[in-house]
Design goal:
By secondary structure, the chain is an all-alpha fold. The chain has 4 helices and no strands. Helix 2 (about 35-50) runs antiparallel to helix 3 (about 60-90), helix 2 packs parallel to helix 4 (about 100-125) and helix 3 (about 60-90) crosses helix 4 (about 100-125). The protein is elongated and about 80 Å long.
Length: about 130
């Protein structure tokens, strides 16, 4: 008797062994579980970057103002990561959608705040 498993011909396998092999193959190909963590992290980062100009004035300007250039790309990435996760979880009743929803909401806020500020500046200049 050997400890090494030898491949068995399909004719010699029972139905339960064939079903087990098919389940193992399906598990290997299965999609990773979607949780929305990336969307939440990106959305929170984008909103946090909106507060960088309010840091103390002793800090160099590149620390206070450079993150403002990255707010829109990071917020868009939060939406790009969160919306497909929500769509993938649509049919699953047991899925926890909270992280993805919050990430999409924070990304949306981080997009709308700079746009509203730009519109306000345009109206004030007129």
């Amino acid at each position: 008797m050997s400890l090494v498993k030898e491949p068995v011909e399909p004719e010699q396998q029972t139905e339960s062994e064939q079903e087990q092999e098919q389940e193992q193959e399906q598990e290997q190909v299965a999609e990773p579980e979607r949780r929305g963590t990336a969307s939440l992290a990106l959305g929170a980062t984008a909103v946090a970057m909106l507060g960088c100009p309010f840091l103390p004035e002793e800090l160099p300007p590149w620390i206070r103002f450079f993150p403002l250039y990255l707010v829109l790309p990071v917020a868009i990435m939060a939406l790009v990561c969160g919306l497909p996760d929500l769509w993938a979880m649509r049919g699953d009743e047991g899925a926890a959608r909270g992280r993805a929803r919050i990430g999409v909401a924070l990304g949306t806020v981080a997009i709308l705040v700079p746009l509203a500020a730009c519109l306000l500046m345009v109206q004030l200049l007129e």
